Amino acid sequence: MVFVRSLVLLLKFLFLYSLFTFTFTTCFPQIQPKCHQYESHALLQFKEGFVINNLASDNLLGYPKTASWNSSTDCCSWDGIKCHEHTNQVIHIDLSSSQLYGKMDANSSLFRLVHLRVLDLSDNDFNYSPIPSKIGQLSQLKHLNLSLSLFSGEIPPHVSQLSKLLSLDLGYRAIVHPKGSTSNLLQLKLSSLRSIIQNSTKIEILFLSFVTISSTLPETLTNLTSLKALSLYNSELYGAFPVGVFHLPNLELLDLRYNPNLNGSLPEFQSSSLTRLGLDQTGFYGTLPVSIGKLSSLILLSISDCHFFGYIPSSLGNLTQLMDIDLSKNKFRGNPSASLANLTQLRLLDISHNEFTIETFSWVGKLSSLISLEISSVNIGSEIPLSFANLTQLVLLSAENSNIKGEIPSWIMNLTNLVVLDLPFNSLHGKLELDTFLKLKKLAVLNLSFNKLSLYSGKRSSHMTDSRIQSLELDSCNLVEIPTFIRDLGELEYLALALNNITSLPNWLWEKESLQGLVVNQNSLTGEITPLICNLKSLTYLDLAFNNLSGNVPSCLGNFSQSLQTLALKGNKLSGPIPQTYMIGNSLQRIDFSNNILQGQLPRALVNSRSLEFFDVSYNNINDSFPLWMKDLPELKVLSLSNNEFHGDIRCSDNMTCTFPKLHIIDLSHNEFSGSFPSEMIQGWKTMKTTNTSQLQYESYSTSNSAGQIRTTQSTFYTFTLSNKGFSRVYENLQNFYSLIAIDISSNKISGEIPQVIGELKGLVLLNLSNNMLIGSIPSSLGKLSKLEALDLSLNSLSGKIPKQLAEITFLEYLNVSFNNLTGPIPQNNQFSTFKDDSFEGNQGLCGDQLVKKCIDHAGPSTFDDDDDDDSESFFELYWTVVLIGYGGGLVAGVALGNTYFPQLKRVM
Ligand SMILES: *[C@@H]1O[C@H](CO)[C@@H](O)[C@H](O)[C@H]1NC(C)=O
Ligand SMILES: *[C@@H]1O[C@H](CO)[C@@H](O)[C@H](O)[C@H]1NC(C)=O
Ligand SMILES: *[C@@H]1O[C@H](CO)[C@@H](O)[C@H](O)[C@H]1NC(C)=O
Ligand SMILES: *[C@@H]1O[C@H](CO)[C@@H](O)[C@H](O)[C@H]1NC(C)=O
Ligand SMILES: *[C@@H]1O[C@H](CO)[C@@H](O)[C@H](O)[C@H]1NC(C)=O
Ligand SMILES: *[C@@H]1O[C@H](CO)[C@@H](O)[C@H](O)[C@H]1NC(C)=O
Ligand SMILES: *[C@@H]1O[C@H](CO)[C@@H](O)[C@H](O)[C@H]1NC(C)=O
Ligand SMILES: *[C@@H]1O[C@H](CO)[C@@H](O)[C@H](O)[C@H]1NC(C)=O
Question: What are phi and psi of 330, to 5 degrees?
Answer without folding.
Answer: -130, -165
